[in-house]
Write a structure and sequence with these properties.
Helix content is 37%, strand content 16%. By secondary structure, the protein is α/β, with parallel strands linked by helices. It has one domain (6-334): TIM Barrel, CATH 3.20.20.70. The strands form three sheets. The protein has an eight-stranded parallel beta sheet with strand order 3-13-12-10-9-8-7-4. The chain has a three-stranded antiparallel beta sheet with strand order 5-6-11, with no helix packed on it. The protein is globular and about 60 Å long.
């Protein structure tokens, strides 16, 4: 694997830091191209294909043009915080090639909403593909005032986002997942949804934790339906899944070890929602490492699929590899 993918020779943090330079250069010489397969339209947004990047890949919206050049069907920017912050200090990222696993405890490093707004202002209108903006809170903001940070992000970025992802499920911001507890979640979502409805009416998606048990997830899904949320992303990274890995105890694991759990959560969500889903969006994320994984998640009920680890272990050509296999499958079906 390493011989054909030289970036894997580099430490994970260094490879992560250098990737924006590659994307920026690539986008200058390659036209935008989003291969068409499994195309559909949702809430007025056209998805030429259902495969995009997950939150955390392009934290500040610096490389949207690069993702368009690589063939992504949609792009998620962020997590964006209102004020700039560095995130956690010390070791924040690692990987295991043998397990195709990633670990991070970055903690929402962000250049802030104003910087991301400038990046978004410079992009094509209408966007070449839909752009989702993943929003979070600053580390120093207390939980009882967290909604203020999310509303600030809505107001700063509302004119430029095609949809928002509400991130309450990162394990790397202290206490954040407490906002997914039903009593706290109700008040939080009611406030944020009301502001969005009155001022922007952008679709709102909630990103869920894989570490919730089925009872907790069912409660969150039922509450989301009741309040009129537009969809969900399943799932964020996991605080478990350390077997056979030398990752630290804190932080979140993604990639191969997360795949079975993310898949289970998708199956469970489609069962709970059933026909009540009624046009709401389900996005599957977590352990998607091959074209077969992408197709499997779509068959299980996801309308969109996101990747992060696949870009590390398979490389930036992953979008076109999947598109080619989708085309080949379509041709076989017709022959």
């Amino acid at each position: 694997m390493i011989l054909t993918k030289p970036w894997l020779w580099l430490p994970s943090a260094l490879a992560h830091d250098l990737s924006p330079y590659f994307l920026g250069l690539y986008s200058k010489f390659k036209k935008y191209e989003s291969p068409s397969w499994h195309s559909f339209t949702w809430r007025g947004l056209e998805f030429k294909n259902p495969l995009g990047i997950a939150g955390g890949v392009d934290k500040n919206g610096d490389q949207v043009r690069g993702w368009w050049s690589l063939g992504a069907g949609f792009v998620e920017v962020g997590t964006v915080t209102p004020a700039p912050q560095k995130g956690n200090s010390g070791r924040v990222m690692s990987r295991s090639l043998s397990h195709q696993a990633l670990w991070n405890r970055m903690g929402f490093p962000s250049r802030g909403a104003d910087y991301v707004r400038e990046q978004m202002e410079s992009l094509l209108e209408p966007h070449f593909t839909p752009i989702f903006v993943n929003i979070g809170k600053n580390a120093q903001t207390p939980l009882d005032r967290a909604h203020e940070d999310y509303i600030f992000n809505l107001r700063r970025l509302g004119p430029y986002a095609d949809a928002f992802v509400i991130n309450l499920s990162s394990p790397n911001t202290e206490g954040l997942r407490k906002l997914l507890e039903p009593q706290a979640l109700r008040g939080f979502l009611q406030t944020v949804i009301q502001v969005n409805t009155e001022e922007f009416a952008r679709p709102l998606l909630l990103k869920l934790s894989p570490d919730m048990d089925e009872e907790q997830m069912a409660q969150v899904l039922e509450l989301s339906l009741e309040l009129g949320l537009d969809g969900w992303i399943l799932t964020n990274t996991s605080t478990a899944l350390r077997q056979g890995l030398s990752f630290p105890r804190e932080g979140g694991v993604s990639g191969g070890p997360l795949a079975p759990l993310a898949r289970e959560r998708l199956i469970f969500a489609t069962k709970i929602l059933g026909p009540r889903r009624n046009g709401r969006l389900l996005i599957s994320c977590g352990g998607v490492l091959s074209a077969e994984d992408v197709f499997d998640r779509l068959e299980l009920g996801a309308q969109l699929v996101q990747v992060y680890s696949a870009l590390v272990f398979q490389g930036p050509s992953f979008f076109r590899q999947v598109a080619q296999k989708a085309l080949e499958s379509t041709l076989r079906e017709k022959s």
